[in-house]
Amino acid sequence: MDTYTVEFRMEDLSLIPSEITKILELNPCQTRDINSHINKRNPNALWAYDGIYFDNDSLAYEWKTLEEGLSFVLDKLEPKLHLIESNFSMYKRYFWCAHFQESFDGNTRVSPNLLKRLANFNTELIINNYYSDDTHRGDR
Question: What is the spatial distance between Cα 94 and Cα 121, in angstroms, rounded to a whole number?
Answer without folding.
Answer: 9
